[in-house]
Amino acid sequence: MKKYAFKSERPKKPGPKEWPVVVYLWMIGLGVAGYLMGRIALYTAPHPYHWLSMLTGALLGIVVGWFWYRWRGDIKI
Hints:
Oligomer: single chain
Radius of gyration: 21 Å
Order of helices and strands: HH
Strand content: under 5%
Number of helices: 2
């Protein structure tokens, strides 16, 4: 005899989890802030430095976003 009569009775396997919204917001926010600060501080430097400052800000935003998620939880949208 089968263990489950219907498909709906089977326990569902957890799928891949998404990142919390707060992590995306911190990543976007610090990425834009890093780009703008890079444009101001590195005005005479070549353009790729501005993009590098944006990437650095976005990576920092990921770290800060996960710390925020662990400390305060996700935001409600």
